[in-house]
Amino acid sequence: MLDKIQQIKAEMEQLHAQTLEDAEALRIKYLSKKGLIPQLMEDFRSVPAEMKKEVGIKINELKTLAQERINALKESLATQETAGANIDLTRTPYPISLGSRHPITIVKNEIVDIFSRLGFTLAEGPEVEDDWHVYSSMNFADDHPARDMQDTFFVESHPDIILRSHTSSVQARVMERQQPPIRVICPGRVYRNEAISARAHCFFHQVEGLYVDKNVSFTDLKQVLLLFAQEMFGPDTKIRLRPSYFPFTEPSAEMDISCHLCGGKGCSFCKHTGWVEILGCGMVDPAVLEANGIDSKVYSGYAFGMGIERITNLKYQVKDLRMFSENDLRFLDEFKAAN
Ligand code: PHE
Asked: How far is 319 from 262, CA to CA, in rounded Å?
Protein backbone atom coordinates (compact mmCIF):
# COMPACT_ATOMS: atom_id res chain seq x y z
CA MET A 1 0.00 0.00 0.00
CA LEU A 2 2.74 2.45 1.00
CA ASP A 3 4.62 1.55 -2.19
CA LYS A 4 1.58 2.31 -4.26
CA ILE A 5 1.16 5.68 -2.60
CA GLN A 6 4.83 6.41 -3.19
CA GLN A 7 4.51 5.45 -6.83
CA ILE A 8 1.52 7.72 -7.50
CA LYS A 9 3.31 10.52 -5.67
CA ALA A 10 6.27 10.12 -8.04
CA GLU A 11 3.90 10.26 -10.99
CA MET A 12 2.51 13.55 -9.64
CA GLU A 13 5.96 15.12 -9.86
CA GLN A 14 6.16 14.24 -13.56
CA LEU A 15 2.63 15.28 -14.45
CA HIS A 16 2.25 17.19 -17.69
CA ALA A 17 -0.47 17.94 -20.22
CA GLN A 18 -0.62 19.66 -23.62
CA THR A 19 -4.23 20.69 -23.60
CA LEU A 20 -7.06 21.29 -21.18
CA GLU A 21 -8.59 17.96 -22.27
CA ASP A 22 -5.39 16.15 -21.35
CA ALA A 23 -5.48 17.77 -17.94
CA GLU A 24 -9.11 16.76 -17.48
CA ALA A 25 -8.18 13.16 -18.42
CA LEU A 26 -5.54 13.22 -15.67
CA ARG A 27 -8.13 14.44 -13.19
CA ILE A 28 -10.40 11.55 -14.14
CA LYS A 29 -7.54 9.07 -13.93
CA TYR A 30 -6.44 10.12 -10.44
CA LEU A 31 -9.29 11.89 -8.71
CA SER A 32 -12.67 10.89 -10.13
CA LYS A 33 -14.86 8.46 -8.18
CA LYS A 34 -13.25 5.41 -9.71
CA GLY A 35 -9.85 7.05 -10.01
CA LEU A 36 -6.59 5.79 -8.53
CA ILE A 37 -6.65 7.87 -5.37
CA PRO A 38 -10.27 7.15 -4.35
CA GLN A 39 -9.35 3.53 -5.09
CA LEU A 40 -6.59 3.78 -2.49
CA MET A 41 -9.15 5.05 -0.05
CA GLU A 42 -11.25 1.97 -0.69
CA ASP A 43 -8.23 -0.24 -0.03
CA PHE A 44 -7.57 1.68 3.15
CA ARG A 45 -10.29 -0.34 4.89
CA SER A 46 -8.14 -3.45 4.79
CA VAL A 47 -5.07 -1.75 6.25
CA PRO A 48 -4.16 -3.25 9.66
CA ALA A 49 -5.29 -1.04 12.55
CA GLU A 50 -1.79 -0.22 13.78
CA MET A 51 -0.84 1.23 10.36
CA LYS A 52 -4.07 3.11 9.73
CA LYS A 53 -2.80 6.39 11.12
CA GLU A 54 0.37 6.53 9.01
CA VAL A 55 -1.32 5.37 5.80
CA GLY A 56 -4.31 7.67 6.35
CA ILE A 57 -2.10 10.74 6.59
CA LYS A 58 -0.13 9.73 3.46
CA ILE A 59 -3.30 9.17 1.39
CA ASN A 60 -4.67 12.54 2.39
CA GLU A 61 -1.40 14.25 1.52
CA LEU A 62 -1.41 12.52 -1.83
CA LYS A 63 -4.94 13.62 -2.55
CA THR A 64 -4.16 17.28 -1.78
CA LEU A 65 -0.99 17.10 -3.87
CA ALA A 66 -2.87 15.65 -6.84
CA GLN A 67 -5.59 18.29 -6.62
CA GLU A 68 -3.04 21.09 -6.47
CA ARG A 69 -0.96 19.76 -9.34
CA ILE A 70 -3.90 19.18 -11.65
CA ASN A 71 -5.50 22.54 -10.85
CA ALA A 72 -2.22 24.32 -11.49
CA LEU A 73 -1.87 22.55 -14.83
CA LYS A 74 -5.40 23.52 -15.81
CA GLU A 75 -4.89 27.14 -14.83
CA SER A 76 -1.70 27.60 -16.78
CA LEU A 77 -3.20 25.88 -19.83
CA ALA A 78 -6.32 28.04 -19.60
CA THR A 79 -4.35 31.30 -19.59
CA GLN A 80 -2.13 30.08 -22.41
CA GLU A 81 -5.13 29.16 -24.52
CA THR A 82 -7.00 32.45 -24.02
CA ALA A 83 -3.85 34.50 -24.52
CA GLY A 84 -3.10 32.64 -27.71
CA ALA A 85 -6.62 33.08 -28.98
CA ASN A 86 -6.79 36.84 -28.47
CA ILE A 87 -3.39 38.11 -29.48
CA ASP A 88 -2.39 38.68 -33.05
CA LEU A 89 1.36 38.24 -32.83
CA THR A 90 1.87 39.52 -36.37
CA ARG A 91 0.34 42.92 -35.62
CA THR A 92 2.69 45.89 -35.61
CA PRO A 93 3.06 47.63 -32.22
CA TYR A 94 3.07 51.07 -33.88
CA PRO A 95 1.73 53.68 -33.37
CA ILE A 96 2.25 53.38 -29.63
CA SER A 97 -0.19 55.69 -27.92
CA LEU A 98 1.83 57.74 -25.43
CA GLY A 99 0.22 59.42 -22.46
CA SER A 100 0.87 63.02 -21.52
CA ARG A 101 1.47 64.88 -18.29
CA HIS A 102 -1.48 66.51 -16.61
CA PRO A 103 -1.59 70.28 -17.25
CA ILE A 104 -1.35 70.97 -13.51
CA THR A 105 1.82 68.86 -13.35
CA ILE A 106 3.28 70.61 -16.40
CA VAL A 107 2.74 74.06 -14.88
CA LYS A 108 3.83 72.95 -11.40
CA ASN A 109 7.10 71.63 -12.85
CA GLU A 110 7.61 74.88 -14.71
CA ILE A 111 7.09 76.97 -11.56
CA VAL A 112 9.36 74.71 -9.49
CA ASP A 113 12.01 74.87 -12.26
CA ILE A 114 12.03 78.66 -12.31
CA PHE A 115 12.44 78.89 -8.55
CA SER A 116 15.06 76.15 -8.40
CA ARG A 117 17.16 78.21 -10.78
CA LEU A 118 16.92 80.96 -8.14
CA GLY A 119 18.22 78.65 -5.42
CA PHE A 120 14.94 77.41 -3.91
CA THR A 121 14.77 73.75 -2.91
CA LEU A 122 11.66 71.61 -2.95
CA ALA A 123 9.80 70.84 0.28
CA GLU A 124 6.68 68.74 0.66
CA GLY A 125 4.42 67.86 3.57
CA PRO A 126 1.27 65.93 4.51
CA GLU A 127 -2.18 66.78 3.14
CA VAL A 128 -3.83 65.57 6.34
CA GLU A 129 -2.50 68.07 8.85
CA ASP A 130 -3.04 69.39 12.35
CA ASP A 131 -4.43 72.77 13.30
CA TRP A 132 -1.03 73.94 14.57
CA HIS A 133 0.81 73.67 11.26
CA VAL A 134 -2.04 75.00 9.11
CA TYR A 135 -3.32 77.80 11.35
CA SER A 136 -1.93 78.40 14.85
CA SER A 137 1.75 78.51 13.88
CA MET A 138 0.78 80.77 10.97
CA ASN A 139 -0.60 83.41 13.31
CA PHE A 140 -4.30 82.76 12.72
CA ALA A 141 -6.23 83.94 15.77
CA ASP A 142 -8.37 81.24 17.41
CA ASP A 143 -11.51 82.85 16.05
CA HIS A 144 -10.19 83.60 12.55
CA PRO A 145 -12.95 83.00 9.99
CA ALA A 146 -10.72 80.82 7.76
CA ARG A 147 -10.86 78.10 10.44
CA ASP A 148 -14.61 78.18 10.10
CA MET A 149 -16.50 75.10 8.98
CA GLN A 150 -17.07 76.87 5.66
CA ASP A 151 -13.47 76.56 4.65
CA THR A 152 -11.86 73.73 6.50
CA PHE A 153 -12.52 70.02 6.17
CA PHE A 154 -12.23 68.41 9.58
CA VAL A 155 -11.57 64.75 10.18
CA GLU A 156 -14.68 63.58 11.98
CA SER A 157 -14.20 63.06 15.72
CA HIS A 158 -10.75 64.75 15.57
CA PRO A 159 -11.33 68.52 15.59
CA ASP A 160 -7.57 69.04 15.57
CA ILE A 161 -6.93 66.98 12.43
CA ILE A 162 -7.82 68.70 9.16
CA LEU A 163 -7.17 68.64 5.44
CA ARG A 164 -4.71 71.46 4.82
CA SER A 165 -6.32 74.50 3.25
CA HIS A 166 -3.03 75.99 2.10
CA THR A 167 0.56 74.77 1.72
CA SER A 168 1.82 77.28 4.31
CA SER A 169 1.75 74.25 6.63
CA VAL A 170 4.80 72.95 4.75
CA GLN A 171 6.62 76.20 5.51
CA ALA A 172 5.84 75.69 9.20
CA ARG A 173 7.24 72.17 9.03
CA VAL A 174 10.44 73.39 7.36
CA MET A 175 10.96 76.22 9.88
CA GLU A 176 10.45 73.98 12.90
CA ARG A 177 13.24 71.64 11.83
CA GLN A 178 15.68 74.03 10.14
CA GLN A 179 17.32 77.32 11.04
CA PRO A 180 17.87 80.02 8.36
CA PRO A 181 18.99 80.45 5.68
CA ILE A 182 15.80 78.81 4.41
CA ARG A 183 14.80 79.00 0.77
CA VAL A 184 12.06 76.53 -0.13
CA ILE A 185 9.32 76.08 -2.67
CA CYS A 186 6.34 73.98 -1.56
CA PRO A 187 3.92 72.62 -4.16
CA GLY A 188 0.93 70.53 -3.18
CA ARG A 189 -2.77 69.82 -3.12
CA VAL A 190 -5.00 71.77 -0.76
CA TYR A 191 -8.63 71.41 0.27
CA ARG A 192 -11.40 73.92 0.96
CA ASN A 193 -15.02 73.28 1.66
CA GLU A 194 -16.45 75.10 -1.35
CA ALA A 195 -19.35 74.26 -3.63
CA ILE A 196 -17.95 72.84 -6.87
CA SER A 197 -18.52 75.07 -9.92
CA ALA A 198 -16.66 76.25 -13.01
CA ARG A 199 -14.73 78.71 -10.82
CA ALA A 200 -14.26 76.88 -7.52
CA HIS A 201 -13.44 73.34 -6.41
CA CYS A 202 -13.12 71.60 -3.06
CA PHE A 203 -9.49 70.82 -3.86
CA PHE A 204 -6.87 72.61 -5.90
CA HIS A 205 -3.10 73.04 -6.02
CA GLN A 206 -0.77 75.67 -4.68
CA VAL A 207 2.88 76.54 -4.78
CA GLU A 208 4.21 78.56 -1.89
CA GLY A 209 7.67 79.94 -1.45
CA LEU A 210 9.54 80.97 1.69
CA TYR A 211 12.83 82.76 2.11
CA VAL A 212 14.21 83.48 5.59
CA ASP A 213 17.68 84.89 6.22
CA LYS A 214 19.41 87.98 7.62
CA ASN A 215 18.39 91.25 5.97
CA VAL A 216 15.72 89.89 3.66
CA SER A 217 13.67 92.83 2.41
CA PHE A 218 10.54 93.58 0.43
CA THR A 219 12.76 94.62 -2.48
CA ASP A 220 14.14 91.07 -2.66
CA LEU A 221 10.60 89.73 -2.80
CA LYS A 222 9.59 92.11 -5.55
CA GLN A 223 12.62 91.32 -7.67
CA VAL A 224 12.16 87.56 -7.37
CA LEU A 225 8.48 87.83 -8.28
CA LEU A 226 9.21 90.05 -11.28
CA LEU A 227 11.72 87.51 -12.50
CA PHE A 228 9.23 84.70 -11.98
CA ALA A 229 6.48 86.56 -13.88
CA GLN A 230 8.77 87.25 -16.83
CA GLU A 231 10.05 83.67 -16.98
CA MET A 232 6.53 82.31 -16.78
CA PHE A 233 4.62 84.74 -19.00
CA GLY A 234 7.28 86.34 -21.19
CA PRO A 235 9.95 89.06 -20.88
CA ASP A 236 7.55 91.96 -21.45
CA THR A 237 5.39 91.06 -18.45
CA LYS A 238 4.95 93.81 -15.87
CA ILE A 239 3.94 93.31 -12.26
CA ARG A 240 1.90 95.43 -9.85
CA LEU A 241 1.61 94.96 -6.09
CA ARG A 242 -1.54 95.96 -4.21
CA PRO A 243 -1.72 96.13 -0.40
CA SER A 244 -3.59 93.18 1.07
CA TYR A 245 -3.95 91.18 4.26
CA PHE A 246 -2.82 87.71 5.33
CA PRO A 247 -2.47 86.67 8.99
CA PHE A 248 1.05 85.32 8.39
CA THR A 249 2.61 88.24 6.49
CA GLU A 250 3.05 91.90 7.34
CA PRO A 251 3.03 93.92 5.18
CA SER A 252 1.06 91.80 2.70
CA ALA A 253 0.34 92.30 -0.97
CA GLU A 254 -1.44 90.77 -3.90
CA MET A 255 0.38 90.68 -7.19
CA ASP A 256 -1.11 91.32 -10.62
CA ILE A 257 0.63 90.79 -13.93
CA SER A 258 -0.06 92.76 -17.07
CA CYS A 259 -2.60 90.77 -19.06
CA HIS A 260 -0.56 88.67 -21.44
CA LEU A 261 -3.48 88.19 -23.81
CA CYS A 262 -3.96 91.86 -24.69
CA GLY A 263 -0.54 93.07 -23.53
CA GLY A 264 -2.19 95.32 -20.96
CA LYS A 265 -4.49 97.18 -23.36
CA GLY A 266 -7.61 95.65 -21.86
CA CYS A 267 -9.72 92.70 -23.04
CA SER A 268 -12.57 90.55 -21.79
CA PHE A 269 -10.10 88.19 -20.10
CA CYS A 270 -8.71 90.92 -17.81
CA LYS A 271 -12.12 92.56 -17.58
CA HIS A 272 -10.68 95.55 -19.47
CA THR A 273 -8.32 96.46 -16.64
CA GLY A 274 -5.11 95.30 -18.34
CA TRP A 275 -4.13 93.38 -15.19
CA VAL A 276 -4.78 89.89 -13.80
CA GLU A 277 -4.19 88.78 -10.24
CA ILE A 278 -1.83 85.84 -9.80
CA LEU A 279 -0.57 85.53 -6.23
CA GLY A 280 -0.43 86.65 -2.61
CA CYS A 281 2.78 87.59 -0.85
CA GLY A 282 4.39 89.55 1.95
CA MET A 283 7.06 89.74 4.61
CA VAL A 284 6.77 86.86 7.08
CA ASP A 285 5.13 88.19 10.25
CA PRO A 286 7.68 88.11 13.12
CA ALA A 287 5.07 86.25 15.19
CA VAL A 288 5.22 83.39 12.64
CA LEU A 289 9.02 83.21 12.85
CA GLU A 290 8.86 83.15 16.67
CA ALA A 291 6.10 80.51 16.73
CA ASN A 292 8.38 78.33 14.62
CA GLY A 293 11.51 78.78 16.72
CA ILE A 294 13.28 81.42 14.61
CA ASP A 295 14.65 84.60 16.23
CA SER A 296 12.77 87.46 14.57
CA LYS A 297 15.31 90.02 15.83
CA VAL A 298 18.03 88.36 13.77
CA TYR A 299 16.10 87.07 10.79
CA SER A 300 13.45 88.32 8.42
CA GLY A 301 11.79 86.65 5.48
CA TYR A 302 9.30 86.81 2.68
CA ALA A 303 6.66 84.36 1.51
CA PHE A 304 4.40 84.06 -1.47
CA GLY A 305 1.71 81.66 -2.60
CA MET A 306 -0.16 81.01 -5.81
CA GLY A 307 -2.82 78.66 -7.15
CA ILE A 308 -1.48 76.39 -9.88
CA GLU A 309 -4.92 76.12 -11.50
CA ARG A 310 -5.01 79.89 -11.80
CA ILE A 311 -1.60 80.08 -13.48
CA THR A 312 -2.60 77.21 -15.77
CA ASN A 313 -5.81 79.03 -16.70
CA LEU A 314 -3.81 82.11 -17.58
CA LYS A 315 -1.42 80.13 -19.73
CA TYR A 316 -3.95 77.88 -21.44
CA GLN A 317 -7.31 79.63 -20.98
CA VAL A 318 -9.09 76.69 -19.41
CA LYS A 319 -12.63 77.92 -18.91
CA ASP A 320 -13.91 75.45 -16.36
CA LEU A 321 -11.91 74.37 -13.27
CA ARG A 322 -13.73 71.04 -13.16
CA MET A 323 -11.95 69.92 -16.33
CA PHE A 324 -8.75 69.52 -14.33
CA SER A 325 -10.18 66.66 -12.31
CA GLU A 326 -12.51 64.94 -14.77
CA ASN A 327 -9.73 63.07 -16.58
CA ASP A 328 -11.37 63.51 -19.96
CA LEU A 329 -8.73 62.28 -22.41
CA ARG A 330 -9.87 64.74 -25.08
CA PHE A 331 -8.90 67.56 -22.69
CA LEU A 332 -5.69 65.96 -21.41
CA ASP A 333 -4.50 65.13 -24.95
CA GLU A 334 -4.48 68.82 -25.78
CA PHE A 335 -1.43 69.21 -23.54
CA LYS A 336 0.71 66.63 -25.31
CA ALA A 337 2.72 69.29 -27.07
CA ALA A 338 3.51 71.04 -23.78
CA ASN A 339 5.11 67.98 -22.17
N1 PHE B 1 -1.47 80.95 1.98
C2 PHE B 1 -2.07 81.96 1.16
C3 PHE B 1 -3.35 81.41 0.58
O4 PHE B 1 -3.60 80.24 0.69
C5 PHE B 1 -1.16 82.43 0.06
C6 PHE B 1 0.02 83.18 0.59
C7 PHE B 1 1.20 82.53 0.90
C8 PHE B 1 -0.03 84.53 0.77
C9 PHE B 1 2.28 83.20 1.38
C10 PHE B 1 1.04 85.24 1.25
C11 PHE B 1 2.20 84.58 1.55
O12 PHE B 1 -4.14 82.12 0.01
From this structure: 17
Q: Is 208 in the pocket of ligand 1 (CB under 6 A)?
A: yes
Cβ neighbors of 325 (< 8 A, separation 6 or more) are 201, 203
The pLDDT tens digits of the residues spanning 169-192 come to 999 999 999 999 999 999 999 999
Whole-model pTM? 0.72
39 in helix, strand or coil?
helix
Note whether residue 299 is domain-resident: yes
Is residue 77 a contact partner of residue 35, using CB atoms and an 8 Å limit?
Answer: no
pLDDT digits (tens, 9 = 90+) for 226-237: 999 999 999 999
**Domain stops at, among 85, 116, 143:** 85
In terms of residue numbers, what domain contains 24? 2-85
Q: What residue's CA is closest to ligand 1, atom 8? A: 280
Average pLDDT rounded to a whole number, residues 119-143: 93
Provide the pairing of β-strand 182-191 with 121-122: parallel
Q: Which of 170, 245, 248 most suits a substitution to test ligand 1, by most atoms within 8 Å of the C-beta?
A: 248
Instruction: Single out the residue in 85, 113, 145 at which a domain terminates.
Output: 85
Average pLDDT of span 277-295: 96
Task: State in Å: Cα 304 to ligand 1 middle.
Answer: 6
pLDDT of residue 93: 78
Distance 280 CA to ligand 1 centre (A): 5
